[in-house]
Amino acid sequence: MSFASLGLSERIVRAVSERGYSEPTPIQMQAIPAVLSGGDLLAGAQTGTGKTAGFTLPLLQRLEAGPAATPGKPRALVLTPTRELAAQVEESVREYGKYLKLNSMVMFGGVNINPQIRQLKGRVDILVATPGRLLDHVQQGHLDLSGIGILVLDEADRMLDMGFIHDIRKILALLPKSRQNLLFSATFSDEIKKLADGLLDHPSLIEVARRNSATELVSQKVYRVDRERKGALLAHLVRENDWHQVLVFTRTKHGANRLADQLTRGGIPALAIHGNKSQAARTRALSEFKDGSLQVLVATDIAARGIDISELPHVVNFELPNVAEDYVHRIGRTGRAGCEGEAVSLVCVDEDKLLAGIERLIKSKIRAEVVPGFEPDPSIRPEPIPNGRTQLPGRQRPPSRKDPRTGRQSKN
User: Fold this and answer.
1) What is the pLDDT of residues 359-384, one digit of tens each?
2) pTM for the complete prediction?
């Protein structure tokens, strides 16, 4: 099947072809006709399935056929949970719409608001934004949402995890009642179903991967090691296996900084990305990681959501996530676009319950090994894990925290 056979215009198909794509993925084959029909859509898609093109391509086609936008009054809104994902989606919009007379912009916090204000004074057909900065512009009178005809909630599960539900409700109240709604989520939790029930009108339902399934192209392995020796083991694995482009996950921002510094001191180029880093620092780290000049990128779960590298070979869980579903999101960063990937988890005695929860979720036992020279000390007792030890793995999520200065939810 070709992109043209899905009903897309020649100019859009040409732009898609120039990006090297000739055949649509399963999510695209189902989502594109559904969006073109004008109805609401509830789509379940893991990362790496091509979902961004699944909504941007038909979105561009629908807008091209309509009237032009007026300054400060966009026609389509795409909400994303993180800055990196917003930038990635808007870049796709520009690339796929390069032969169309449509304008787009990206809007997120952590950067100067004035260039965004100036951009809103011109015509913007498609606005890609994070919830907090979007509401800032609305409250300051720079943005009118009454012209939105199409709303996309991308990675809706992550937006709920990050505590954006109140911001989302505020935004929904500002939109016209008559509009097309598209909701994309990697998982269909009870919270997502509740949001969908209140938002969508008789939606088409698409689910291209089994719920919470771990991709079959990813080789999964656990290395047993003591908590204090994880950094040394990671450095050993990177050197011995000559790994390049390694994405490493930690639970906390402080842990990400500490690990990146430790690796760099040991001669392995590494940088950390998380919510406390400036946008310029995050953009630079991502750019160096994508072009291969940075060997290791250490990230928190939320900061990594915008990373889109089609052939990322290695993902390492330096620490297992407190929420089992996040393990699936993490390893989904590799094994994409038909390429094989490797997901390695460094597991200490503290994390036995978290590992058991992950194995229950994916319905599979993960092969465990011990690296000679890094054998765990059987006399070491488990210690509580901050922000997660008391939770049932895969069930509850850590409570979001509010910044005392702004009253907003904090971001990892």
Assistant:
1) 988 888 999 999 999 999 999 999 98
2) 0.62
Residues belonging to the chain = 412
> 27-73, pLDDT tens digit by residue?
899 999 999 999 999 998 766 678 899 999 999 999 998 887 788 89
Kindly list the structural domains of the chain, giving each domain's residue range(s) and its CATH number in brackets, ordered by start. Answer: 4-207 (3.40.50.300), 218-369 (3.40.50.300)
Q: Which two tokens stand for residue 228?
A: 């204090």
Assess contact for 62 and 56: CB atoms under 8 A.
no
Q: How many CB atoms lie within 10 A of CB 33?
A: 15
Q: Give every CB contact of residue 228 below 8 A, 6+ residues apart in sequence.
A: none
Task: Give the bridge partners for 273, in sequence order.
Answer: 299
